[in-house]
Amino acid sequence: MAATIGAPRVLLRRLRETMALPEGGEVKLARIVVDIAANMVAEVCSIYLRRRDESMELVATEGLNPDAVHNTHLARGEGLVGLVASRAEAVNLPEARDHPSFSYRPETGEEIYHSFLGVPVQRQGRVIGVLTVQNRTQRNYAEEEVEALQIVAMVLAEMIASDQLEPSRAGNRSVGQVVGGVPLSDGIAHGHVVLHVPRVAVDTLIADDPDHEEKRLSDAIEKLRATIDDMLSRGDVARAGEHRDVLEAYRMFAHDRGWIRRMNEAVATGLTAEAAVAKVQNETRARVVNQTAPFLRERFNDLNDLSNRLLRMLTGRSTAVEEDLPDDTILVAHSMGPAELLDYDRQKIRALVLEEGGHASHVAIVARALSLPAVGQADSILNKLDTADPVVVDAEAGEIHIRPSADVISGYKDKERLKAQREARYAKIKDQPAKTKDGVEIELLMNAGLMVDLPHLHETGAAGIGLFRTEFQFMIASTFPRPDEQQRMYAEVLDAVGDKPVVFRSLDVGGDKVLPYLRSSHEENPALGWRAIRMALDRPALLRTQLRALMRAAQGREVRVMLPMVSDVAELEGARELIDKETRHLVLHGYTLPKRLLLGVMIEVPALVWQLDRLLPLVDFASVGSNDLLQFLFAADRTNLQVAQRFDSLSYPVLRVLGEVATKARTHDVPVTLCGEMAGEPIEAMALVALGFRSISMAPSSIGPVKAMIRSLELASVEQSLHYALSGDVGDIRQHLQGFAATHDVEI
Ligand code: PEP
Ligand code: MG
Q: What is the CATH classification number for the domain harbouring 377?
């Protein structure tokens, strides 16, 4: 029985001999299952492969009814095979029929078997098949046997991936499929698929000389670290800022002691260096597969990327990166680390599509930095397309059109052309004032949070930065950014904006903005929980460090600080005390104070709207965070797509509240802006100026469209029209305003 590493060695030799045969994949698979069954002393050995529709197809069997081959398809998650696939880990049962997942298939004749051992066949984070053995007796497969079958599954995976074993590639290649996903980085592109699957085949698994393998592994790790250091030292401007932070995190992983220890232990059991890397990679994947915490997945993606790099170094094999890429490459991957994306030639990549990947993932941040359209969470897309398939990626709608019809392609080409025309028009007015036809100037500011956003300030002609989300620096880092790192970033932002204003919002973490390294307890309602100013006042060191970094970065310049999620005047007073303490500290230590420090609050908690008479005299400015204000006003979680769209931001209650804020700010002579998403929609922006807002802050891409709207608008008419709508009964206010824009030639 395969109780030692020796048994797989015999089996692996048999597998190699089989692979050398001139026969096709079907025959080879049939031989392989016979060999495995014999070696494991099992009556049954079967191989199932995942198909495009996510089902598991029986492709070879020794022991089950041969007629079931290609006829037995288990739906996603069905049966014990489905369980192995969905858990991505071994399932070992002395009595299979007692398990709730057992699914009886009469065509296979498997009811006579009791014990069951199934292991996943995995490639690059995906379960591509399942390998099973079964016995008539109620057997407990030993841990060594499970391990032996896993090693065989690993070899099988490599063989399947390199197309040596695929019995038939007939799948569902329908024309015109659309797969939905989540937009990660804006844009539209069409081109041809390149699958980012680093095809690193590990075919030498058993070491002849373990000492030599240990040395190979440690040399490869050294080389890997040197490559990352090299990337870090390339230092071109494009890679400054958060790129740097991402790569720093990467470097940290390359020094992860646990990871290196586990690989060394695997080498000590007799595996080759590359097999050890692959084994640890698979184990980590199995642990992560059921994890939903974005941080753990992100960390896994980084480690996975590093493992692939190590494998390439150890096997000397190349990846798509080094191959000739088409000039219109649409890169498709299950997941990807940021450094992997940076390896590709940006000139040849038109878009990126990932099966995983959230908006805040490292690779998404890098895609945005490269202005590369990207869509994430494209469910099972790898099963639906092949290399060189034509695709259209609409990263605005979050859609991927696979093998699109000629009509769809030409529709998208028109869309791309129109977009280019619109952008050319916006570029023309970028240095023109954002002034209405009746001469009222509106301040159009942009929102930012990363160093890569800064060039947009000049590209769009924004009047300044109305909201700098400082938490982004914290969110992409792997540990708390040190005070000097914070200071460096703030100084760079201040340098970049020059004479234009920038409002730094103090750390707005908690809620959906999670810092992996900041321990916090589980909250049932995080959006209403311990976040932003609440956390800052409970942990004053956090806010004080940030304030100190900001004040020191100012170097005698003016600095504006804005507090998020204030719900009570007392919180503002608490923050003011901390600022005073920091000021005294800086004076005491001989630092130059900022020329002045302007303090503002965000109005995003409804309760604050009824405290404006007390609050406004105490602040230098205010900014409405309409994203949060509206989610609280309508009790509709902004991150839950099922409810987030249920209210209209141009409805009566919203406009009344916002109108109240604008009026109070004017009464108290306090500058007010609005920096939520609605500021970036031309029709919403039109309503805001009609309500009295003279300053709004938005995503950089909205500056052009909103400025075009302002320049085509007569303020007095829209004020009158909105006033009429709010005091009378016009029904749908959005429709009313759309009608106004249409009849008054306002560009919305
Ligand atoms: C808001 O709530 O409107 C806002 C601008 O802040 P954030 O989106 O970062 O919560
Ligand atoms: Mg907010």
A: 3.50.30.10
